[in-house]
TrEMBL record:
NCBIfam families the record matches: PRK11083.1
Protein name per UniProt: Two-component system response regulator CreB
Pfam families assigned: Response_reg, Trans_reg_C
Species: Deefgea tanakiae
InterPro entries xref list: CheY-like_superfamily (IPR011006), OmpR/PhoB-type_DNA-bd (IPR001867), Sig_transdc_resp-reg_C-effctor (IPR016032), Sig_transdc_resp-reg_receiver (IPR001789), WalR-like (IPR039420), WH-like_DNA-bd_sf (IPR036388)
CDD domains reported in the protein's UniProt record: trans_reg_C
Keywords: DNA-binding, Phosphoprotein
Region forming the signal peptide: none
Keyword Plastid in record: no
Record domain Response regulatory: where: 4-115
Encoding gene, per UniProt annotation: creB
Modified sites of kind 4-aspartylphosphate: D51
Length: 226
């Protein structure tokens, strides 16, 4: 069966163009204009496209509730260009975001990429971690840092264990995108920067004295050896 997308968007003109682009790519789409209807429909979806500004609730609040019971992929739509909103959405568990105005073809491409990534994650594995600050429970897909559990989004988890598997190795953004199953495009590479920023914030909350992930300008990112 074709992947089923639930689109939660209150503007009919935007919903119509997105539904056309997605269905043209072979995806089935259910459109909901209200948050409460979208949350119900999301229970049977393979991916949710979620507008942050909804008339009956905040899309970020919807995302919070979805993440309490599900790891369904979520792509955020937002008219807000501020970095705070983008970072908050990623911290709450969104897989990616698109800022309005956008190309429906770009959204469709990102949806297909996220779906491909989620399919890979079911068999995802990494070598064991050799770093005394981190403990990795591969069965539960949980990472502890300095004895405390990290609350990670699926993308943050995959990025972190990729870095942990090879301490000191500098990964380019395109290599990190490969770990997420994404194509190496400029817009996707900026998403890597956002995920890394969020990861650093979570690590520094536990150990503010350590810079655990190093930036190698012009090259990429590496986990510092400890």
């Amino acid at each position: 069966m074709n992947p089923h997308i639930v689109l939660i968007e209150d503007e009919p003109a935007i919903a119509d163009t997105l539904r056309f682009a997605l269905e043209r790519d072979g995806l089935s789409v259910t459109w909901c204009a209200l948050a409460r209807d979208g949350e119900i429909a999301a229970q049977q979806a393979d991916l949710v496209i979620l507008d942050i500004g909804l008339p009956d609730d905040s899309g970020l609040e919807v995302l919070k509730r979805l993440r309490k019971s599900s790891e369904i992929p979520v792509l955020l739509l937002t008219a807000r260009a501020e970095e705070f909103d983008r970072i908050l959405g990623l911290e709450l568990g969104a897989d990616d975001y698109v800022v309005k105005p956008f190309s429906p073809r770009e959204v469709a491409a990102r949806v297909k990429t996220i779906l491909k990534r989620s399919q890979k994650s079911s068999t995802y594995s990494q070598p064991s971690i050799d770093n005394h600050l981190f403990q990795h429970d591969t069965q539960a897909k949980r990472v502890q840092f300095a004895g405390q559990n990290l609350t990670l989004t699926p993308s943050e988890y995959r990025l972190l264990i990729t870095l942990l598997a090879h301490p000191g190795h500098v990964f380019s953004r395109s290599q990190l995108l490969d770990a997420l199953g994404e194509a190496a495009e400029d817009s996707f590479e900026r998403t890597i920067d956002s995920h890394i920023k969020s990861l650093r914030a979570k690590l520094r909350t536990i150990r503010p004295d350590l810079d655990t992930i190093a930036t190698h300008r012009g090259f990429g990112y590496a986990l510092e050896k400890r």
